[in-house]
Design a protein that fits this description.
With 258 residues, this protein is α/β, with parallel strands linked by helices. The chain has helices at 3-23, 61-73, 89-96, 144-154, 188-195, 208-214, 230-235; strands spanning 29-30, 37-38, 42-44, 49-53, 80-85, 101-107, 115-116, 129-135, 155-164, 170-171, 174-175, 180-181, 202-203, 217-222, 252-257. It has two domains: 3-59, no CATH class; 62-257, Vaccinia Virus protein VP39 (Rossmann fold). Bound molecules: zinc ion (ZN).
Length: 258
């Protein structure tokens, strides 16, 4: 991003976060993660999608959704070992707030997590974790099938892996019926054109669960967002409003060893 664009974006963020709530006293939205209330969340992403990022805790739509999901489903009564890939700060906090959770975050970049790990070649023994949480990582990984097999390998026999990716039904007017990847595209600018982001290596379609099943998972899709009231979905701004958004943004892919 050019310096001029960065300055414009930062100025807009500051206006939206601090000035706009003074002009507009409505408190239409509330962040479930940090309690912030305001007329709307900040714009976010390449296309500056509206009503997205919390000015206080930086949560995005999906982080708020996962926050609510984990708060509802995490067991508090038995010790569990959790592995969290590419940790979102607010989700780390949720896991670490449970005294029964033995928590480890990992990332290919050691500055971003507790431990450095390559998702396609994990250092852990088989059957190490009760719960594995991995969101918006696999679309960056060329050999995502190997990553899925590694996740399965380190998951306990009765464990649960929550594996989430952006899923598109269409892109730039083209229908996406099957997951699209082309490994001849390696230039970041061309990847942005082809896959929507400079560091993505594919666009997943709704056949994502088939790839997980090929890796040996039983996949259950929890349409969690549909269990919430429309009022809560709007108030917490849980669904992104951009051109790629679809109902799958509110779904949780629950994977168990088959
Ligand atoms: Zn917040």
């Amino acid at each position: 991003m050019k310096l001029q664009e960065k300055i414009i974006k930062k100025t807009d963020d500051l206006f939206q976060a601090y000035v706009y709530p003074l002009i507009n006293k409505k408190r239409n939205v509330k962040c479930p993660c940090c309690g912030w209330t305001g007329p709307r969340f900040l714009h976010h992403g390449l296309e500056r999608r509206p009503n997205s990022r919390c000015p206080k805790c930086d949560s995005l739509e999906r982080f708020r959704l996962y926050y609510l999901y984990l708060k509802k489903t995490l067991p508090a009564d038995k010790p569990i070992r959790v592995l969290h890939f590419a940790p979102e700060k607010i989700i780390s906090k949720v896991f670490m707030s449970y005294p029964n959770v033995d928590y480890l975050s990992v990332d290919i970049n050691p500055a971003k997590a507790m431990q450095k790990e390559d998702i396609t070649n994990l250092s852990f023994a088989d059957h190490s974790f009760d719960l594995i949480f991995c969101s918006h990582v696999l679309e960056h990984i060329p050999d995502d099938r190997k990553a899925m097999r590694e996740i399965k390998r380190v998951l306990k026999p009765d464990g649960l892996a929550i594996l989430l990716v952006p899923i598109m039904d269409s892109y730039k007017g083209r229908k996406i019926e099957k997951t699209y990847e082309d490994f001849s595209i390696t230039d970041p600018k061309q990847r942005e054109m082809a896959f929507g982001q400079h560091d993505h290596v594919r666009i997943y379609a709704r056949d994502f669960n088939e790839r997980l099943e090929e890796a040996g998972f039983n996949v259950t899709i929890d349409k969690f967002v549909e269990s919430l009231s429309i009022h809560d979905v709007e108030r917490y701004a849980l669904m992104p409003k951009n051109s790629f958004a679809n109902e799958t943004d509110g779904w949780i892919y629950c994977c168990r060893r088959s």
